[in-house]
Structures are given as C-alpha cells and as structure tokens.
Amino acid sequence: MLPPELPELPALTRAEGELIDRYLEVVDLVGRINPARAQHTYGGLRAAQALVAKATALRDALTLMHQRGETEVHAATLARALRILDGERRAERVTVPPQSAS
Description:
This protein has helices at residues 14-33, 41-67, 75-84, 87-92. It is mainly α. Helix 1 (14-33) runs antiparallel to helix 2 (41-67).
C-alpha cells in the first residue's frame, strides 16, 4: 500500500525554502529543550548545544533574503508550506502542555 500523497509545496524562492527549513530545525530543537515536555536533561542539553548553530543558520537565511531584496515575508504562503511540512505539530512541542486532570 502506498502512503497518501502529500500536498504540493507552494512555490518558494530558494531563500524562502531555506528560511522554512532552518526555522523548523530551530522549532524542533526548542521543542526538545522544553522542560514541560522533557524527560531527561541529556536530550535537552544536546538540543541546546545544537541550537546555537541552527539559530545562526536561521539568521543567515534571513540575512540572505534581505540581501537579495526579499524584504517582505509572504506569511500566508510560508504558513501553507509550514503546515504541509507538519509545522503545527512540531511547534506544539514548544508550548506548555495542557494540565492533566489528576
């Protein structure tokens, strides 16, 4: 059985694609660091160490966009790309989970 076909990504510039990729990497790492969701310190420590390099790459992607004259962010298009790339689920890990009824 073949997996369901994913929706097609919207047309993005190379710099916008880089921005989306780097942003999601940062979100994934911050989600791993989130003390409200973590189970062990070691995983959070490793994620925090990697965050420096990924945040630098995110900054570089934004810098490149700006230098190329891409001064406006097309939020609706980029949000559509984030949704297709499972950005909503990935970003949920950054938030505090709902309080469980005990």
